[in-house]
Design goal:
mainly alpha; about 5% strand; 38 helices; transmembrane helix; 4-stranded antiparallel beta sheet
Length: about 900
């Protein structure tokens, strides 16, 4: 490691990326040395004789040469693997550097100087296409934003070094040594790129994307029906023209001020060295921070906005009659500012814009912009400068007129580019919906019928109340739901009453589902009120039902406040995780709680932003493909407020809890409470946390005297997990914390009776042990304990004597069995198929259908088991989708093994 982990963190480099970053940095450094040395050699010759005419001629010639080289590169890009193309390009650059060395050695004419300048530009283009082509497929869009500024800073110290050499070396005879050095640098870059290719998969793989609507205009067809590529290319043309014009004005004015060639090169070299050093410092130290704070849109507009102001300033200086020295300082500042902004701000962001495209499109678009439209801008500038140089009366001010117009055009196209960038991110994630469709989504409305009479309204309300009460009855639920939907608005008051605090969770869940299907403004208001309740299960139910509604601007403050509330809760849990192992019992429980918070935040965002965008982003961050994850995060980064994004990214990231806590601390300051996390969990209880999380905190926390009142409700809790957790903990206090135990007896005189009842019930498997049994069953092995705790209430303990037939082949099955003690044999007639023991399960297909049993189950010894009935289990699966997903996963694995076994037996 070249630098410490602390420095990597400051630079935004993750440990697994360090080697890659260093390879690209060194690669760019070597390319920068070679390129700047060729640049110095070309400018030394061109500034010797009549630069006013020779520089525009060199620009035009170089533009034509670059466009031809870009066309050749495009051909091979389509017909050669990128790994091979990168190496071949550098070989071509090495050969071209040798040709330029020969020209410097034998050619002293203006034509030779123009040829050298054209050769420099072609080398610059080829190295640029090769470097960014490789990096564009190695890094995803998120890495690009973090790292492009850093790896592209590699050429800055090299160019500063070359500019320093320009100060020292200005004799024509010494230039050959510069080109020999450039030749060696390109050769070393070739070795570095080969090392990069050996350690990375550099391949532009096509990916499945939704087909774009075919464009009708010639412009759209030229750019592959891609508005993003079109706007980028047009803005690149304008910026290249202005950059060329500013460079020309700077060089010519320096030549006019310092007639001695040595002084000219010293001044130019000094400005170049300062420019590249400033650009390097900004790229390495500030580029990522600035991008994080300003965002892509502002960073894109920074270059044209600042340069446009600088160009307009020339008019003021000319009107004020500024002297030659003042104008020289102005040209120096304009050139330095443009170069620093272009290299340190614009170029890294410009390259990020291509990342949402599919890899082949990405490379083609970059080649098109750099290999055709950027040279086109330089060629246009050369033509305009050459024409102006022929008329001395307008030569001083005309370039600033057309440069101002070009930069205003760049500002216009870049303002449109950001919208196209977001649309391309959406296109990369979704194959069904477009951004335009999402932006047209409106809240569904129902036609308003004539108002019912008071008597009819009262009758409907009474009926709706009766039907709402029937929603918890499994047999009558379907008919009650259908009738409530038919009642429409008349059913809303009864449903809203069922959603208020104090009602049962089952009733609230069913009522919320019906309210969501009504799609009425009144039902939506009831669901929004439910979402504001602190109980996480109720909030999740409300947000699930609200998915059928489009965002309503009037409710935005409510959901914004809930997002902030969820993020602050996440901060509290993350701070607690810093002192815990993620694999400990409480650590696992908190990990589940954080995952639930993440899901709730995404659901809340659907009520604030185009829902399909958020849904696509949520699916994308959970996707296995790194690039899809990066595109999803980029959508969120450009859609939601920056602090929300950083907090959500910290939740999604796999970084240590300490790093996440630091992020939350920077965003929200210290947590509102400093109470120990287990005590905080017990204090908040089921209004904030899952019952398993609270039970674990109860078992692990030793309360103080002041915290005992928070424990009292749990001793009489109807939830077996919570009561067991509290009683188990107080049992330990009886032997280790006498003072606290005595105070508990004083506050709750019935405590001894509760402890005796707890011991008497020990013959039955406690709720905590049942969760452990489920956890060690293959069917639920990947299911968090927080989810398994919801299955415990429906586990019915059953016993069978040896030889008892549990079910027979052909019986209608509606139950799954999990063996706790004993052995169960599965028979097909007299043939024993398999034997199940502790932790095994059988009859699982009955949970998904009610078809006849495919075999007979017989207790081969005394059996103690737990039965899960289909109806009860359906209710759990409806509430906890993780349960259903794990059952399907295990059944698929069994089916796959069975197919493999059948195949091997053939």
């Amino acid at each position: 490691m070249f630098i410490s982990t602390t420095w990597y963190r400051l630079l935004g480099v993750r440990p697994e990326e360090a080697r890659t970053v260093w390879l690209f940095f060194l690669h760019n450094f070597l390319l920068g040395i070679g390129t700047i040395l060729v640049y110095v050699a070309a400018n030394v010759i061109l500034l010797e004789n009549n630069p006013e005419r020779n520089l525009p001629l060199a620009y035009g010639t170089a533009a034509l040469a670059m466009m031809a080289a870009g066309r050749v590169y495009t051909h091979f890009e389509h017909h050669m693997l990128l790994q091979k193309l990168a190496g071949r390009v550098l070989l071509a650059v090495v050969a071209l550097a040798g040709v330029l060395g020969v020209l410097v050695l034998v050619g002293h004419s203006v034509a030779a100087a123009v040829a050298i300048m054209a050769g420099y530009r072609v080398i610059y283009l080829l190295t640029n296409l090769e470097f960014w082509g490789v990096s564009a497929v190695v890094f995803d869009v998120r890495q690009s934003k973090r790292l492009f500024g850093l790896i592209s800073a590699g050429d800055m110290p090299a160019k500063a070094l070359g500019a320093g050499l320009a100060i020292i070396i200005h004799a024509h005879t010494d230039l050959l040594y510069l080109l020999l050095t450039a030749f060696a640098a390109y050769g070393a870059a070739l070795l570095v790129v080969r090392a990069t290719l050996r350690s990375h998969t550099v391949e532009a793989r096509p990916v499945g994307r939704r087909q774009r609507v075919a464009g009708t205009s010639v412009w759209q067809r030229w750019f592959g029906n891609n508005q993003l590529v079109l706007s980028i290319c047009l803005s690149m043309t304008a910026i290249a023209a202005v950059t060329t014009g500013v460079e020309y004005s700077f060089f010519v004015n320096v030549k006019h001020k310092f007639h001695d060639q040595a002084l000219v090169m010293q001044y130019v070299g000094g400005v170049l060295a300062l420019t590249y050093l400033l650009a390097m410092l900004f790229k390495v130290g500030l580029a990522q921070v600035t991008l994080d704070r300003l965002g892509i849109r502002r960073m894109l507009l920074a270059l044209p906005g600042v340069v446009l102001v600088g160009l307009l300033l020339f008019g003021g200086l000319s009107w004020a009659g500024a002297g030659e020295s003042t104008l020289l300082i102005y040209f120096c500042g304009l050139y330095l500012g443009l170069e620093v902004l272009r290299r340190a701000v614009f170029d890294p962001v410009f390259l990020v814009l291509f990342q949402p495209l599919a890899p082949p499109e990405r490379l083609q678009a970059h080649t098109l912009a750099k290999g055709y439209y950027e040279p086109l801008g330089m060629g246009l500038a050369g033509l305009l400068l050459y024409a102006a140089a022929s008329h001395e009366a307008i030569a001083n001010w005309l370039p600033f007129v057309w440069m101002t117009l070009f930069m205003a055009g760049a500002l216009f196209f870049l303002a449109r580019t950001y919208g196209h960038y977001l649309a391309e991110l959406q296109h990369a994630l979704s194959q069904r919906f477009s951004l335009a469709d999402e932006l047209r989504t409106e809240l569904p409305t129902e036609p308003t019928d004539a108002a019912p009479t008071p008597a009819a309204a009262a009758t409907d309300l009474a009926e709706a109340q009766q039907l709402t009460a029937l929603l918890t009855d499994k047999k009558q639920r379907p008919a009650a739901t259908a009738r409530l939907l038919n009642l429409g608005p008349a059913a809303v008051p009864a449903l809203a009453a069922a959603l208020r605090p104090g009602t049962s969770e089952a009733l609230a869940r069913r009522a919320a589902s019906v309210a969501g299907q009504l799609r009425l403004p009144e039902s939506r208001r009831a669901l929004v009120a439910l979402a504001q309740q602190p109980h996480p299960a109720r909030r999740e139910v409300a947000l699930r039902a609200l998915r059928g509604f489009a965002p309503v601007a009037a409710d935005a403050p409510v959901f914004q406040g809930l997002v902030e509330e969820e993020l602050r809760l996440a901060q509290r849990l993350v701070n607690g995780l810093v002192h815990l192992s993620a694999t400990s019992e409480l650590g696992r429980a908190l990990g589940y709680e954080l995952a639930r918070i993440e899901q709730r935040i995404f659901s809340l965002l659907q009520q604030l932003y185009p829902p399909q965008l958020i849904v696509d982003a949520q699916r994308g961050v959970a996707h296995a493909a790194r690039e899809r994850q990066a595109n999803a995060l980029e959508i969120l980064d450009n859609l939601i407020p920056r602090p929300w994004y950083q907090g959500l990214q910290a939740l999604l990231d796999l970084s240590p809890a300490a790093d996440k806590a630091q992020v939350f601390g920077q965003l929200f300051g210290p947590p509102a409470t400093t109470v120990a996390l287990p005590a905080y969990i017990i204090q908040q209880g089921e209004t904030t946390f899952n019952d398993w999380t609270v039970a674990v905190a109860l078992r692990q926390h030793v309360p103080t005297l002041g915290q005992l009142p928070d424990w009292l409700p749990y001793f009489n809790s109807p939830n077996a997990l919570l009561q067991e957790g509290a009683l188990t903990a107080i049992n330990h206090l009886a032997t280790s914390q006498h003072i606290i135990y005595d105070e508990a007896l004083r506050l709750l005189p019935a405590l001894p009776h509760l402890l005796m009842s707890h011991h008497a019930a020990a013959a039955h498997l406690p709720a905590q042990a049942r969760v452990g049994l489920l956890r060690h069953t293959a069917l639920f092995a990947e299911t968090p304990e927080n989810v398994l705790s919801s299955i415990v209430p429906i586990m019915q303990e059953v016993t069978f004597p040896a030889g008892h037939q549990i079910f027979a082949k052909g019986d209608l099955g509606a139950s799954l069995y999990i063996v706790y003690e004993g052995e169960v044999g599965i028979f097909n007639g007299p043939q024993l198929l398999t034997t199940f023991r502790q932790g095994d399960f059988f009859g699982e297909l009955a949970l998904l259908d009610a078809e006849p049993r495919s075999a007979t189950a017989v207790a081969q010894s005394a059996v103690r088991a737990f039965r899960l009935d289909q109806d009860d289990f359906y209710d759990v699966m409806e509430e906890r989708g993780e349960v259903l997903r794990n059952i399907l996963r295990v059944l698929c694995q069994r089916l796959r093994r069975q197919n493999e076994s059948n195949g091997s037996n053939k």
